[in-house]
């Protein structure tokens, strides 16, 4: 995979790339984009296509913050047109660290990893404590 485009409302993509780099180090394949007040779907589409450039569509994954939001919808249209490989929503730091650790893999492999591990990205303290207590009983 050559490019992972991070886009969300406001500066979400920029902030997530900064967080990934704080933990993981440089992430040159991550391309954060902003979606600012007053911008619309055409602006987002232009920003994404500018980053894609002449990169092969199968080497580009877009990660959006919110399913069915403007950034997601813009990327989804590009995916349906065959201009990018796919779009995943629900951008989170654990997800992006998973992507960073597997950046050398193809998009399909990374998508499969994201989806198979997505239930591990959100934890509830009280549930984790209960699970720990149950493990301690054995």
Please provide a written account of the structure:
The protein is globular, with a radius of gyration of 16 Å. The chain has six helices and four strands; from the N terminus they run E-H-E-H-E-H-E-H-H-H. It has a four-stranded parallel beta sheet, with helices on both faces. It has helices spanning 12-24, 41-52, 70-80, 93-101, 107-117, 125-136, and strands spanning 3-7, 30-33, 60-64, 86-88. Strand 1, helix 1 and strand 2 form a beta-alpha-beta unit. It has 138 residues and is of the alpha/beta class. The mean pLDDT is 95. Helices cover 49% and strands 12% of the residues.
Q: Which helices and strands, and how do they pair?
A:
Layout: E1 3-7, H1 12-24, E2 30-33, H2 41-52, E3 60-64, H3 70-80, E4 86-88, H4 93-101, H5 107-117, H6 125-136
Parallel strand pairs: 1-2, 1-3, 3-4
């Amino acid at each position: 995979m050559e490019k992972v485009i991070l886009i969300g409302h406001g500066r979400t993509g920029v902030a997530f790339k900064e967080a990934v780099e704080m933990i993981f180090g440089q992430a040159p394949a991550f391309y954060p984009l902003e979606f600012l007040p007053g911008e619309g779907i055409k602006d987002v589409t232009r920003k994404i296509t500018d980053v894609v450039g002449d990169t092969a569509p199968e080497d580009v994954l877009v990660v959006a913050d919110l399913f069915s939001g403007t950034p997601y919808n813009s990327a989804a249209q590009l995916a349906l047109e065959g201009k990018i490989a796919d779009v995943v929503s629900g951008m989170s730091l654990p997800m992006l660290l998973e992507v960073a650790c597997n950046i050398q893999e193809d998009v399909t492999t990374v998508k499969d990893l994201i989806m198979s591990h997505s239930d591990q990205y959100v934890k509830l303290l009280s549930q984790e404590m209960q699970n720990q207590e149950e493990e301690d009983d054995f």
